[in-house]
Every structure is written in structure tokens, then in C-alpha cells.
Amino acid sequence: MFSGPSSTFPPPRRRRGLLLVLLLAVIAAGASGWFLWRPTGDASSQATAPSPDGGAAKPVPSDTADGHGAGHGGPSPTGHSGLRGKTVVLDPGHNLRNRDHTAEIARQVDVGNARKECDTTGTATNGGYPEASFTLDVVRRARALLRQEGVKVVLTHDDDRPWGPCVDERAERGNAAHADAAVSVHADGAGAGERGFHVILPARVVAGKADTSAIVAPSRTLGTGLVKRFAAATGSEPADYINHGSGLDVRSDLGGLNLSKVPKVFIECGNMRDAQDAAQLTEAQWRQKAARGIAEGITDFLEH
Fold first, then answer.
1. Are 157 and 164 in contact (CB under 8 A)?
2. Catalytic sites, residue numbers
3. Are the beta carbons of 182 and 174 closer than 8 angstroms?
4. Is there a contact between 141 and 152 (Cβ–Cβ < 8 Å)?
């Protein structure tokens, strides 16, 4: 049976169907491209960074207004803009290897109104956990939290020295950095049964190379805020054996305070020789709370 010549083109109705399919495909491709595209400032395009205290992740923009983004080595863009450009010096009390350099740390240094030992070994819990290990761990944790807020943090040492530094050098680190605040972190070695933390403020000392006249008032502001924040973060009470439980003590015999030209305080985070306090000080989770209390006390001071 003869069917006539075949055609390579579809009938008109089939051509219209194919054109319709092609048109729908183009529309779909354009729509999908619109949904996939986002402006660079859209929050959905931001990466997230874990919070150092284990909390919810925070967005990290690809860059910040001053050109120092997360990949440029600048301050964390998650920080408060009012804290960028601020400098804090954190001083981990003592040095774990001081015990191997007793002659060096016994050297006398000038603290303005007296001469004192360069440094000491610090105390330890009855179980042997050293104060120097505690202070370095807490300071490193606090440094991470402060950096997250955009603060520049300088340490007096970072387990990078065979011993020391001496108390006069610790003060000079803060002065040389023109720090907006400095905090020296310690743990006390009081008697068993004596519990709690306290903050040490500089007394007014004008003697020799010491002159704390300009830092007494701002240091008290820093210390008062630190007591409040540390108590809230850790659940600890101010020391029951210092200054009637006020949480504050004023001293004129500490070279790290006497020689400071910037607002500075010491915090004794607890009593290492008390079993209940020691149980907290040796717990990593509690040390993170302590670091948060210190960091929040400092940022409160910097913001006001």
C-alpha cells in the first residue's frame, strides 16, 4: 500500500505543543535562578560560627564595614561596634614553671612604695591542681569571648616563658598597650572553710615610680561591675572572709596594681584550699562560666 512521501516536520498541532513546552522550560529556569540568587547582604547567605560557650551559633558576615572581615584577621564582626578598637590586657597569675626557677622569681623588684619578690609559685588545691594552670585556662577562655566581641586582647604571658613575668613587667604590659582595662586573674589560698571570690582594687599610692591617682576611681567602677557579673555567671558568692563579704578589697602592696597607669583590678576567683570551692575551680564547665563573668564585667566597663 502506498502511503505517500514521509515528512520530517511534525504536524502544526505538534509544533505548537513543542513550543509551549520550550516556553515553560525557559520560564521555570528563570524562576529557579531568582530563588537561588540572594543579595550579598542577605542574612541567609551568611555563614555561622559556634559560640565559645556552647550556645547557639552566631552569623558571621562575609565582611564588615571597616574592611576587616572574618577572613582578614581583624576583630570578629559579631562584636559590638562600640568595642572595636578597645584593648584589654589579661594577666594569668603566676607561671606553672616558676617552681623550677625559684632563684629568679625571688629577685626583688621596685613596686613604688616597697620592694617585693618578682613573682611567686601561686597556690594549688589539696589535690594538686595549680593556680597557674587555672588562671591560664580561664584567661584563654575569656580572651576568646572578648575577641568575639571585637576587643583586642593582650596577655602578659601565654605559657610562652620559662618563668615570670615579674609583677612590675606585668603592670608595664598594660601600660605599653595603652589598655582600656586590665584584669589579673588569680585563685586564693585561704584556709579551709573560707569560701567565695573577691576583687582587689588599687589603693591610692603615690611613691617612687608608683602613682595610682588617676586609676583609683575607674578601677573601682571596673571592679564593682566585675563582682556583679562574676556572681551572676558562676552562682558564687563574694568571699565570706574578706571585707565583710562585700566582694571588694583595697590593697596598696601589689606591684601589679601600684605600677599600673591603666584601670586595673585583680580577681581571686575562689579559694583553692577549700574543698567546695576547689571542686568548682577544677571543673572545666565552671571555668567557662568564670571566663564569661570576667568578660562580661570587662565589656560592661568598656561600654560605659
1. yes
2. 268
3. yes
4. no
Nearest Cα neighbor of 233 from 154, 152, 145, 168 is 145
Record the pTM. 0.75
Q: Does 138 score more than 90 pLDDT?
A: yes
Residue ranges of alpha helices (H) inside the chain are 12-36, 102-105, 131-148, 167-176, 216-234, 255-258, 275-281, 284-303
Lookup result for grid cell 565589656: 299
Q: How far apart are CA 303 and CA 298, in angstroms?
A: 9
Q: Which residue has the cell 520550550?
A: 22
Percent of the chain with pLDDT over 90: 73
CA dist., res. 175 & res. 30, Å (int)? 61
Average pLDDT on 206-224 reads: 98
Q: Which cell numbers in the block locate residue 4?
A: 505517500
> H or E stretch including 47?
strand 47-49
